[in-house]
């Protein structure tokens, strides 16, 4: 897990100093990493969402998957219906602390070409997500 780091900053009303906690949305559906890609796509469809927060057996956030990523995996030549979310994990997912500034999180997201970023607490529990502003 790579946590976006933050430096201590003033908490003035300036938008540059807004934290991720001020800007994040609800985490949305959380699923376990042993779920198959097909079931995850079904959960997304039922929940009418484009992403799922993936957790391990200890309920710690390990990844975030998007509909586009799952569709790409499903459409690949090596795909079988036994592929699980843990099989496609990046194992180095980027996560934000709620204390990270929005500017720092957006910079990291642009650098890694991420449209959405999970926000986790110090124990790895998903608190919400930050969507990249355009």
Briefly characterize the structure.
Pfam families: CBS. By secondary structure, the protein is of the alpha/beta class.
Please tell me the total number of domains.
Answer: 1
Rounded Rg: 15 Å
Q: Note poorly predicted spans.
A: 1-12
Individual helix count: 4
How many extended strands? 7
User: What is the strand content?
Assistant: 15-25%
The CATH homologous superfamily corresponds to CBS-domain
Quickly give the structural class. Answer: alpha/beta
- In CATH terms, what is the architecture? Roll
Distance from first to last alpha carbon: 26 Å
Helix content: 25-40%
**Approximate shape:** globular
CATH topology name:
CBS-domain
Mean of pLDDT: 86
What profile does the largest beta sheet have?
3 strands, mixed
Q: Taking strands numbered 1, 2, ... along the chain, how are they ordered across the largest sheet?
A: 2-3-4
Order of helices and strands: EHEHEEHEHEE
CATH class: Alpha Beta
